[in-house]
Write a structure and sequence with these properties.
Helix content is 63%, strand content 7%.
């Protein structure tokens, strides 16, 4: 059989085998998720994104404080080096003067050989004062050297910490953007009908949670706001309609704790930047004692916060893609509440 015929026969045989081989099973279609499952997935994605945002915010605050510390230490180190330079100059003058005035006789021998012992004694007192001044100069030099060395080590350590925080901040920023990409992917996968159903189901859940909260008696009668709380509420209400943006503290956009921390700062009472720090460091108050201006903290990890308005409502920067708005207090699972202008909480 010629080479050409042999190749044709092999090709035909392979084709026959392929035709007789069983076809691979078609991939099973992905099961259609229910609207409730879609809502659960979205809420989880939003929650993870906000938790990553608050972690990023905390590191950003630490990094800003560390940069200020590095700047302070650099300033102190510059002054210490100037002082050290001056002390070294004084020590140099001292060394030159000592060399020029040196003699081979001790003060005791000079006293014995002096024609006027009283004058020699007087000169001895002067020499004693000079010696004291020389000792003080050397002490200043030694102290300046130690201080400059200590500050140099502290400045290096502070700069290393700053660089570590900057690296951590970048990693956390990437984590936030990754979480938000997951939210965008989930939203893009929804049909218009699914999107409407998810929104409807979410609103029904919020309304049911608000009814349970009201009927349980957990919310007491409204109390008047303090002067500071009233100012914080006023500022927050003025921000309604501005977009949520992670990491933002205004004035053009806010994230949840950016809104509450800026509102209370404008009221004259600075508070911690993140919702976790607000929950950990501010005085806790029961829900039945809420007054306007108090902060309502959400989720077990304290990853969301809103500002209480009264009548069971809060003003909040909800999440990415939305705007600052008024919501029912039970818009998210409530962890508790804190009062920024109460007596300091003992930690």
């Amino acid at each position: 059989m010629s080479g050409t015929l042999l190749r044709l026969a092999c090709t035909a045989a392979l084709a026959a085998q392929a035709a007789l081989a069983p076809l691979p099973a078609a991939a099973a279609p992905e099961p259609r998720r229910s609207v409730a499952q879609l809502l659960t997935d979205l809420q989880q994605a939003y929650r993870q994104a906000e938790q990553a945002t608050e972690t990023y915010n905390a590191t950003t605050g630490k990094l800003a404080a560390q940069r200020a510390e590095v700047k302070r230490l650099d300033g102190e180190l510059a002054h210490a080096r100037l002082a050290l330079h001056g002390s070294r100059a004084d020590a140099g003058r001292l060394a030159r003067a000592q060399y020029q005035n040196s003699s081979g006789f001790s003060a005791y021998v000079r006293l014995l050989l002096a024609r006027d012992p009283q004058q020699a004694l007087d000169e001895g007192h002067v020499i004693g004062r000079v010696a004291t001044e020389r000792a003080a100069t050397l002490d200043r030099l030694s102290g300046a050297e130690k201080r400059a060395d200590t500050l140099a080590r502290a400045a290096r350590k502070a700069l290393d910490t700053q660089l570590t925080l900057a690296g951590r901040q970048k990693e956390q920023r990437d984590d936030v953007t990754g979480r938000l990409s997951e939210v965008e992917r989930l939203l893009a996968s929804l049909t218009p009908e699914q999107h409407s159903e998810v929104s409807r189901l979410e609103q029904e859940g919020v309304q049911a949670a608000q009814r349970r909260l009201t009927e349980s008696g957990a919310l007491g009668e409204d109390r008047p706001a303090s002067a500071e709380g009233g100012r914080a509420v006023g500022y927050a209400l003025d921000q309604i309609g501005k977009p949520y943006r992670w990491g933002a503290q205004g004035p053009a956009s806010f994230d949840c704790s950016g809104l509450t921390s800026r509102a209370w700062a404008r009221a004259g009472t600075p508070i911690p930047r993140t919702s976790q720090e607000q929950w950990a460091r501010l005085p806790h108050v029961p829900l039945d004692s809420l007054r306007p201006g108090d902060l309502v903290i959400y989720f077990p990890e304290a990853t969301h916060v809103a500002l209480y308005l009264g009548e069971g409502k809060v003003v909040q920067a909800p999440r990415t893609g939305e705007k600052v708005r008024i919501s029912p207090l039970a818009a998210n699972p409530v962890l508790g509440a804190v009062r920024p202008d109460a007596a300091p909480r003992r930690l």
